[in-house]
Amino acid sequence: MLFLLLSLLLSLLPLTLLLKRLSTTPPLAAVPSTAPIIGNLHQLGLLAHHSLHSLSLKHGPLMLLRFGSKPVLVVSSAAAAREIMKTQELVFSNRPRSTIVSKLLYGSRDVGFSPYGEYWRQIRSLCVVHLLSNKRVLSFRAVREEETTLMIDKIKQSYSSSPSLAVNLTELFKSLTNDVVCRVASGRKYGEEGRFKKLLGEFVDYLGYFDVGDYIPWLCEVREIAEAKRAITEDKLEKMPYLKAVIKETLRLHPPGPLLIPRESMRDTQVMGYDIAARTQVVTNAWTIGRDPTLWARPDEFWPERFMDSLVDFRGHDFEFIPFGAGRRGCPGIQFAMSVDELALANLVGHFDFSLPVGEELDMSEAPGLTVRKRTALLAVVTPW
After folding, report:
1. Angle between helix 241-253 and helix 334-351 axes, rounded to 10 deg
2. How many helices (H) and strands (E) does the chain have?
3. Which pLDDT tens digits describe the chain residue by residue (385 residues)?
4. Apex CA 385: angle with CA 161 and CA 140, to 5°?
5. Which of 76, 186, 188, 329 has a Cα at 20 to 30 A from 363?
6. What are the names of the required cofactors (predicted)?
7. What is d(CA 66, CA 41) in angstroms, rounded to the nearest whole number?
8. What is the CB neighbour count within 10 angstroms for residue 93?
9. What residue numbers does the annotated binding site for heme cover?
């Protein structure tokens, strides 16, 4: 009996040692159940940021999903985003390879999607110095003011000819954005020649990888600007803190890119105690972080006043508010984008009252796409103020 008992204990010793070693191994992030072949793709709806938000409420702020055979780490908290974009920024500075992106963006040679390395550093430096530095952005002031004045004139002409006719503000915003981008990049307006429409695709990614006109429509219910009988110039914008608060609150609730451009880990690492393998894609849900009730009071309410006495900004230093990303792979075109938005919004609400067409309600539902935008165009009846 003693011999048998000793033999049993010796046979269990390797298993005991193995279990002890496994107990000290860092766990994987939460892994929702997957389907064969497709992994978690079936759990993504048309609006992926909503689907991933729902999953994060169940599984936590770090989830390891499978998109097909590819591991994807989904980040849904400010603390985890800080770990990815600041603490371990160098580890997560690469972009995953994508056949679609490669075909659309010249072999992923653009500043947004090119792999991390010397080529990316050079083109980003060229982009920032020659197009998006504060000095260069200021030098384009005349272009922004001229194009904004033309937009206001179009609205006035529309009112003069048909006072009760609703104006498609979404199309006007798109035209404004395209004309500013093309004039800055090529010296020609967007609609002057067909080839400049193609050129737009080559330059839009320098402005943050989405059309800044996408989120101006959310702002037009706000009215806080005076001097309606004259054009509002950029030198007056610094005196409009509420205008800036409105833009911040809009970006918090409706970031145009709710899922930031994916990153990829360049080596094995740990994030908040979890093992993350090399070449894992990382998707950050900025939409979820911007509505986190542990970070924001009244998180689902449009309340611009929250920013009036707050130092929180969208330039990548405050990880509870990262509509443009952060770190070395953050958007280099923030200043350019904001200069267009602030000037356009100030002049719109400074010149006009807006109302919805009779019998219609404001549709705030979202449409899927490369960027998230309103499902329906913003139509409004305008009245000179």
Report:
1. 110
2. 12, 11
3. 544 444 544 444 454 444 444 444 456 677 788 888 899 999 998 999 999 999 999 999 999 999 998 999 999 999 999 999 999 999 999 999 888 888 877 788 888 899 999 999 999 998 888 888 999 999 999 999 999 999 999 999 999 999 989 999 888 988 998 899 889 888 888 665 554 455 444 443 533 333 444 445 434 533 444 454 567 888 888 888 888 998 999 899 999 899 999 999 999 999 999 999 999 999 999 999 999 999 999 999 999 999 998 999 999 999 999 999 999 999 998 999 999 999 998 888 888 888 889 888 888 888 887 778 888 888 889 988 7
4. 85
5. 76
6. heme
7. 7
8. 20
9. 331
Q: Which DSSP category does 377 fall into?
A: -
Classify strands 70-75 and 281-284 as parallel, antiparallel or unpaired: parallel
> Which pTM value belongs to this model?
0.84
Binding site as annotated, residues:
331
What are the two backbone dihedrals, phi and then psi, of residue 112, each rounded to the nearest 5 degrees? -80, -40
